[in-house]
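User: Please predict the structure of the protein below. I'd like the answer in structure-token form so I can feed it into my own downstream comparison script.

Assistant: Understood. Taking the following sequence of 211 residues as input:
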Amino acid sequence: MKTRPIFPLLLSMSLPMVISMLVNSLYNIIDSFFVAKISEDAMTSLSLVFPVQNFISATAIGFNAVIAIYLGAGRKEKADIAATQGLALSALHGIVLMIICILIMPAFLSMFTSNKNVVDLGVQYCNIVFTFSPALMLAIAFEKIFQSVGRMKISMFSMLCGCIANIILDPLLIFGVGFFPEMGIKGAALATGIGQVLTLVIYIIAYLRCE
């Protein structure tokens, strides 16, 4: 980073990050596209859950700045400690948020609608998708670690794989294509969770290979 021309360096670091952010937003768009085919109530319930999902994602962002600062100062040991602590806290936060969100979602959804079917569908979706919160938090933590050391392409590839898996699994699990069971809105939640786990697995493999 100290020797390369600035403009090519900015492009090599910013474009993969932009693509990663776009891919991350596609999870909600893809789920919305297929869930809308189930029913209007299913789509409404999904739209009420999305802000909480975004909140969970937001809580995992931030500690990569500390890693980058330590690396820029040449304090690699401090950067390693920050990365370890960030991963541990992300896992802990994921477990805590999983429990809290699953418990409060029935009351949360009831604040915005009196339609019992919308609330029931939202709870069905939440009970599955929030179970994967620890995996989501760890995946985001790894994403930020790789970004802080300039490995943007790994971050982009991992998120693309998870998103592609979600695109493939959504119709299969929602509508019961082939030997897959018809799960409705639960299938959308499971597809999202599997995509997040796949992203995390790729990050872990990349991390182990980089050591």
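That's the full token string. The radius of gyration is 19 Å.
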